[in-house]
From TrEMBL:
SUPFAM superfamilies: AF1104-like. This is Damage-control phosphatase ARMT1-like metal-binding domain-containing protein. Residues 6-189 form the Damage-control phosphatase ARMT1-like metal-binding domain. Pfam families: ARMT1-like_dom. It comes from Caldisphaera lagunensis (strain DSM 15908 / JCM 11604 / ANMR 0165 / IC-154). Transmembrane segments: none annotated.
Amino acid sequence: MNMIDEKCKLCLIENRVKDLIRLKGGDKIPYLLKDLSYQLESNKDRDSLFVDSFNYIKKLIKDEDPYKELKMNLNKIGKEASLIVRKELIENNWNLDLALKFSASANIIDINVLGYEYVDLKDALHDEVKVYEKINLPKEKEIYLIFDNSGEVYIDLLLKESLIKNGYNVKTVIRKNSYEIDVTSDEIDADIIIDGNYSPIKKINEGFIIAKGIANLEAYLFSNKKIDTLHLFRAKCEVLAERFNVKKNTPIIISGKNLLNVLKINNLTFHK
């Protein structure tokens, strides 16, 4: 049984076609559509489906990091925005709840969500965050902070700094190879570099995970992991907004356990 939502199928097809056009490979759309048709008939989970289709685009255009230039620009924006966040965190004695909210709000940058409208990172930093429970992070466990998009990663690095200043042991986790505009080991340093470009959450099997973004959230849903997690993301599409009963683009902070309770499901896929 294919477990991807019909709207997500549309999102995948539309945005992978947009990828090719954006990357000057429009003449290869027939090959892409044939591959997508095959993949949508498979039983792949969301992470594998979206990553494999992006990898096919990289193969078609013969470019291992097709959004490299865009990511460089996003990182410039992220660095500038991080100055604002750093100032506020210093003024608030590196308050961890505030750092988590900034990190969730910073999940604003995206290129491949159906109906997504661009919002400037600096303008989005102070959006009201939907926090589903009191946040309790374990000091007795290693915390693995899994990064998401380029640009926003500079806000996430301040979350790491805040965690350390509040007495937590933190390791940052990053993909080695490119996937859309996700940050890779070519852009910033991280404590753990995961080979390939699937969600790093699949490879962490100990400690406590703080995962940024929808792709990592979905990978968690399908991983059947027994360890505790905290998810920071935005409801960037109608599917997510409906599921979480929030306005589209609302930043959300929720634990993995509560996530499953809110969704009332065992398996689900969204868009990134």
